Amino acid sequence: MMTERMFTSNAIENPWVRTLDSLKKTGYKFSRNWLSVLGLVMVVIIVFLAVFAPYVAPYPQHAGKFVDFKNKNQPPSWQHLMGTDTIGRDILSRIIFAFRNALLMAIVVLAISVPFGMLTGLTAGYYSGTWFDTVIMRVTDVFISIPPIILALSIAAMLKATLMNAMIAVTVSWWPWYTRITYSLASSIKNEYYVQAAELTGASKIYILFREILPNCSSSLLTKMALDVGWVTLVGAALSFVGLGEQPPKPALGTMIAEGVERMPAQWWIALFPALAIMFVVLGFNLFGDGIRDVLSPEEA
Amino acid sequence: MRLGPFILRRLALSIFVLFGLSILIFSIARVVPGDPARMALGPRTPVEVVERLRQQMYLDKPLLQQYGLWLRDVVTHGNLGDSLLTRRPVKQDIQEFFPATLELVGLTAIFIIIAGISLGVLSARYANTWVDKVVRLFSYLGIVTPAFAWAVILMLLFCFVWHLFPSYGRLTEGVIPPVTITGMYTVDSLLNGQLGLFWDAFVHLILPAIALALPPMSQAARITRSSMADNQNKDCIASMIAYGVPNRVVTRKYLLKPSLISPITVMGMDIAATFGYAFMVEKIFGFPGLARYGIQVMLVKDINAIVGVVMVLGVVFITLNIVVDIIVVYLDPRIRLLGRSS
């Protein structure tokens, strides 16, 4: 009796404590790899800059309609760390404000395409071999029959060029990849013994899908999400580079590069720093995502 | 699995996918608000002219019928409609601009395949030495830097700091292009025996191709390395080394072949995606290819041309995927022999 009580009390000991404990362990493992930590630091910097842009940007008013022809095309200096553009706006300030839209885009795109892709992939994977699976996966095939960047470009092209429509275009071309990955995970996990056990005990389909299968997909999905923040930023920059995203005078990394390229040999800083900024975002989220993958995948511990 | 039926099945599936893609892109083009004919002609064109264009584009008919008529034109005549930007058949525009992009992506693909695989093999061969570390560091940087950022960086260094390469166009200004045979300047000039011209066209291709190749090349190197590393630990390799099979033979014959399966799959996808990134790189280098044309028509909402460009790229992507599948079947005896035993 005594031992049994001890056993149970140990096992159902406050679940929060257990979660905290495993979080601590995960955090420790994460901090062992300096590249992951570097990635985390970069991500924190990007998020911090984006959130507090009006307070940290040296010239916040330069993010909008602003002209200062006296200071146009200034090379990098102590007043303007990354120089100024063709109408005298501080490039560093504009990059910081551009991070806002870039992150907003990544969040919106992922907030829609992840749940949608996850749901379709999960159900199609669990019911693989049925008509439902066929319909979902063939539709997915069509969407991924051309690279997402081309699909996003052509959808954005047919809508009005705004940030909102750019987000829609990227979302439409992004969800199938989440369907794909969840599908392949779910269709193999459904054959595991614990899923069969749950089926035999008469658990509801909802329970099986969300409590048995989904948690076992989550590490792959989380990793992909962390990496995708960088990639969505990249595709977003590609759209605005072409002129299909946030419209001037509002800052967007792609637009800034496109403007800078025309000034290439003489005013090299106008294109170079926004390009490096995109690199920074993608690198940061890549290192961070790889760190998460290393921590969450048990076999590579 | 025998190759014949396999290819047939893949082809059937591709036709289905292309069909779906055309429905997708066509309906997006027609469903969005705004009158494409009015948009193309501008607000000051008389109503009758706009109406004539609407009829020409079947815009006055129901959506389903529009699609049916469009599909009929495509299938029977290969006619994709007229571009509203250039006022020429879209087909003619694509024929003019596609070879340039194909040439660029072709060279890019050569860079990706040769450099990606050899760097990966090098990295795996000298695993955990400084060679490996340098390759891995550079491949990480390569992956996270988008092609258009590379284009900016390379252009700054090689065109403006060191003046090694031209920064604009397909040929030096004033040089007469070769007689059109394939439309690809490098190929045409070689076929005509104009070596100087070939060199000029080639030099113009190098930087954009490197910019496009760097990210996928790095990806390929990384995947080749990890898949070589996985296979290196297999018992069959250990026993082969124990039997005294020369290292060179083990690597080339028994290690490389199975290790190439996943890099080739990824490279196929990446080479196809290169057509997408070519949109930006062509613009930066002022390279008159399909992608630059694509941007121009996108900015003026030239729907016939957008649909045309997307469909052409869709065909290219699907063809590439089939080629990759065939190579994988060839490389992987497990797939190749599957059908024969059963």
Show the helix and strand layout.
The complex is a heterodimer of chains A (301) and B (342).
Chain A (H helix, E strand, L loop, with lengths): L1 H10 L3 H17 L2 H18 L1 H4 L34 H36 L4 H13 L4 H11 L4 H27 L3 H8 L4 H38 L10 H9 L7 H28 L5
Helix pairs in contact in A: 2-12, 3-5, 3-12, 5-6, 5-8, 5-10, 6-8, 7-8, 8-10, 9-10, 10-11, 10-12, 11-12
Chain B lengths: L2 H29 L4 H6 L5 H10 L6 H15 L12 H36 L4 H15 L2 H15 L23 H7 L3 H38 L2 H8 L4 H13 L1 H24 L5 H10 L3 H29 L1 H4 L1 H4 L1
Helix pairs in contact in B: 1-14, 5-6, 5-9, 5-12, 6-9, 7-9, 7-12, 8-9, 9-11, 9-12, 12-13, 12-14, 13-14
Question: Can you give a write-up of this model?
Answer:
- The complex is a heterodimer of chains A (301) and B (342).
- Mean pLDDT of chain A is 85; it is low at 1-9.
- In chain A, 73% of the residues lie in helices and 0% in strands.
- In chain A, α5 packs antiparallel against α6 (131-143), α8 runs antiparallel to α10 (205-242) and α11 runs antiparallel to α12.
- The two termini of chain A are 38 Å apart.
- Chain A is mostly helical.
- Chain B is mostly helical and 342 residues long.
- Chain B is 77% helix and 0% strand.
- Chain B has helices spanning 3-31, 36-41, 47-56, 63-77, 90-125, 130-144, 147-161, 185-191, 195-232, 235-242, 247-259, 261-284, 290-299, 303-331, 333-336, 338-341.
- The longest helix of chain B has 38 residues, at 195-232.
- Chains A and B meet through α6, α7, α10, α11 and α12 of A and α1, α6, α7, α12 and α13 of B.
List keywords for this structure.
heterodimer; A: 301 residues; mainly alpha; 12 helices; 73% helix; globular; disordered N terminus; B: 342 residues; 16 helices
